[in-house]
Structure prediction request, 222 residues.
Amino acid sequence: MNIFRLLGDLSHLVAIIILLLKIWKTRSCAGISGKSQILFAIVYTTRYLDLFTTYVSTYNTFMKLVFIMTSIVTIFLMNAKFKATYDHNHDTFRIEFLILPALVLALLINNEFTIIEVLWTFSIYLESVAILPQLFLVSKTGEAESITSHYLFALGSYRGLYLLNWVYRYYAEDHYDLIAIVAGLVQTILYCDFFYLYITKVLKGKKLQLPA
Amino acid sequence: ILDQLKHDEL
Prediction:
């Protein structure tokens, strides 16, 4: 465990906490894409199947369980408890256009053709694009609440920090996984436009508003 | 290869 990896994990955890607090405190999930949240739940459940087969560390097991459980709680809050506040009309991204290509790609390009490894690879590919429905929703409404921006910033930073972790591990441990690296690169690039707006607007106290 | 397939990251 190096500092980049730890900061990445913490950033991921902070993102999830911000999201849950936003929904709970404002009693509303307005501006949040339920479709991205469904994709994240699929990502965690397919990736962490190794909870049943491989033990890495207590930290690892704990974080995996937290990610799986919080993603399910988020979906419950959006689709049951605070359903009335959910932005159905703007959350129209077709997630099958992300799920199916990720699955096909995972069947074609993987480290080993076993069920658990193909599902792990699928989750890596799917995660890289899972934020698209959320970014699509923001672009459709043309704005995002600042709390939603903080959530997106923390969530985007997480894979960016992982990239630094992979550079570090390549040199320090001679360890690398091309599938994770390329997908992580794609994932981080998708956030670049948002990062730019976040730094130039939200951090200066302005609302994140897209040019008309 | 087995060691590489032990995914120790999240």
Q: What stands out?
A: The mean pLDDT of chain B is 73. Chain B has one helix and no strands. Chain B touches chain A at residues 1, 4-10 (CB under 8 Å).
